[in-house]
Design brief:
The complex is a heterodimer of chains A (492) and B (92). Chain A has 492 residues and is mostly helical. Chain A has one domain (5-396): Up-down Bundle (Sodium/glucose cotransporter). Chain A is built from 22 helices and no strands. Classes of the chains: A mainly alpha (492), B mainly alpha (92). At the A-B interface, α6, α7, α11 and α15 of A face α2, β2 and α3 of B.
């Protein structure tokens, strides 16, 4: 297929800047504690970067492709549902931000698993947590790779594999080289470019559709279902309910978000990030989904006429934008994809290197030189990225479902373990173990068999079972020792 | 809270403060959920349009966003206090 070279050049430039940032960061971090600088950026993030990296990791390619495609089909009910995501940043930073930061400094912790290990005094639980992180992160990363590469192919005319190589390999390379600090800085660039992309696309969609008045007048006449909260049956209450859990409340326990609580410099930065993050996440959500609805001014058929909801935004970009700006327009969604991948990749790598290997070495008095840690960390990041890259070469179908499956799995595993573990003295090892393992197994089984209650997403089953098991374990098992409780719940 | 007060807080006071702030955040969430319900479903029957958009769509999207920003501002600027996190790199 003949590709659009003018669409490719801005992308290549953008990817080169990302790699350049990571090389610069590695150079600047030379001489500092490698594990701390590589996995949490030496706790040096300021408010703006903290906000942007949290938002960028949270906003995935689905937010830019599948979401607005659904808004095209369903209407304003979809925006009403998606806007619950404005809670994501102030909740995670407000509930966990300071507690995790205080604990990380006390325990010299670098990862969320470090904190779980210290709280429940269990290497087994830490190993399960690391395994769950790597497993579900690989699922999410695959979805990001596939979504990004499909978008690239649809818009530029180059092959799916070319897209995968261009942005897939780039993100693996820059994350491997630069670590968390590079991830945070590139995430910031990605978040800014996402916002520019939304404004650009909105402008050209309005222009191609003959202006706002024209598009909306036509929609009011031809698509009245778009203006009704339940979209004449296309948006049942069950979707609203489960989305509050899946992409709202339960996101506070996603390890990739919680780890940001370890990475910032001071509480002034945290306060700033709560406000900036809420502004940005709302702008992105409302902006891109509203653009999806306005795409009716450009596309006259139904979503099915264009091959499904996932093709709405790519087709809109191609039809509404001048060919010379197509490359700029897809940097936004691709930035959403790579920023999520990089954020997950570095946490998955830390789960293997820091939480499993270095802990094992420390326990067995096995000396690991700093040079070896450095090589291992970078190689592990690259290997995980390469493995996901290979899986994405043969793209699985139902990307959206894989993404949501992984989201639900992580939330089931970590929600109660972190929330009750950090705020309830009675929480203990047995409760956390039962909750994390039992809840995750039940959630996966419900997903595998398609079992639902009241037609609600299986997160409701996972999170409920996980809570019940946590409470049973905590009341049956023995309390943690006083020394541990004194660290997590100090008394005067 | 003054700079000196923050520096002199002991661990128990810091954790107590952080716990209180987490509760404020939880209460803010409950408030936002109630606003979300009223702004969207609660006004769905009102036949008012703003810029061609039904009232529920405006209040349920931009309205919820603005309230979330307000909540974040109140939490971060009024209710949350600066704390010395205890690390040598803590600049506050």
């Amino acid at each position: 297929m003949e590709g659009n070279l003018s669409a490719l050049l801005p992308l290549i430039f953008f990817m080169a800047v990302m790699v350049g940032i990571s090389i610069f960061v590695r150079h600047k971090q030379a001489g500092k504690n490698f594990v701390s600088s590589y996995f949490v950026g030496n706790r040096e993030l300021g408010g703006f970067v903290l906000a942007m990296t949290t938002v960028a990791t949270y906003s995935s390619v689905s937010s830019f492709v599948g979401g607005p495609g659904m808004a095209f089909q369903v209407g304003f009910g979809w925006i009403y549902m998606a806007v619950v995501q404005v809670t994501a940043i102030f909740l995670v930073l407000g509930i966990f931000g300071k507690r995790v930061a205080l604990l990380a400094r006390k325990l010299n912790a670098v990862t969320v698993v470090d904190i779980i290990r210290a709280r429940f005094q269990s290497d087994f639980l830490a190993a399960v947590a690391a395994f769950v992180i790597v497993l579900f992160f690989c699922g999410t990363m695959t979805a990001q790779f596939v979504g990004g590469a499909k978008l690239f192919a649809a818009v530029t005319g180059y092959s799916y594999e070319a897209g995968l190589i261009l942005f897939g390999l780039t993100v693996v390379i820059y994350t491997s080289i630069g670590g968390f600090r590079a991830v945070a800085l590139t995430d910031t660039c990605c978040a800014l470019i996402m916002m520019v992309g939304i404004v650009l696309l909105l402008h050209y969609v309005l222009e191609a559709g003959g202006g706002y008045e024209n598009i909306m007048t036509r929609l009011e006449t031809n698509n009245p279902e778009l203006f009704e909260p339940f979209s004449f049956g296309n948006m049942p209450w069950t979707i609203y309910f489960t989305q509050w859990l899946l992409v709202g409340i339960c996101t506070i326990a996603l390890p990739q978000s919680v780890v940001r609580g370890i990475s910032y410099k001071n509480t002034a930065g945290l306060h700033q990030a709560m406000l900036i993050g809420t502004v940005v996440v709302g702008f992105m959500n409302i902006g891109i989904n509203f653009t999806g609805i306005l795409a009716h001014g450009v596309l006259t058929g139904t979503a099915a006429d264009y091959g499904g909801v996932d093709n709405i935004i790519p087709t809109t970009i191609v039809k509404a934008m001048p060919p010379s700006l197509v490359g700029l327009a897809i940097i936004g969604p691709l930035a959403a994809s790579i920023s999520t991948i990089s954020g997950l990749l570095i946490v998955a790598s830390s789960a293997i290197v820091k939480d499993v290997y270095l802990h094992w070495a420390d326990k067995n008095q096995h000396v690991v030189t700093p040079a070896r840690v450095k090589v291992l960390s970078m190689a592990t990041t690259a290997l995980i990225g390469a493995a996901v890259f290979v899986i994405a070469l043969t793209p699985p179908s139902l990307i959206w479902l894989i993404n949501m499956f992984a989201f639900g799995g992580l939330e089931t595993a970590f929600f109660w373990t972190l929330l009750l573990g950090l705020f309830w003295r009675r929480a203990n090892k047995l409760g956390a173990m039962l909750s994390m393992t039992g809840g995750t197994i039940v959630y996966c089984a419900a997903q595998a068999t398609g079992f639902k209650i009241l037609n609600l997403h299986q997160i409701t089953i996972g999170i409920t079972v996980s809570l019940i098991l946590f409470l049973i374990g905590s009341y049956l098992g023995k309390r943690e020792d006083d020394a541990t409780l004194e660290i997590f719940f100090p008394k005067d | 809270m003054k700079q000196n007060d923050r520096a002199s807080m002991n661990d128990a006071q810091k954790f107590s403060l952080v716990r209180r702030e987490a509760i404020y955040t939880g209460l803010a969430l409950v408030g936002l959920i109630i606003f979300w319900l009223i702004a969207g479903f609660g006004t769905a029957g009102v036949d008012v349009k703003i810029f061609h958009l039904p009232l529920w769509a405006v209040l349920g999207s931009v309205g919820v966003w603005l309230v979330a920003i307000l909540i974040s501002a109140v939490l971060s600027r009024v209710l949350f206090k600066d704390v010395d996190l205890g690390g040598e790199d803590d600049g506050r």
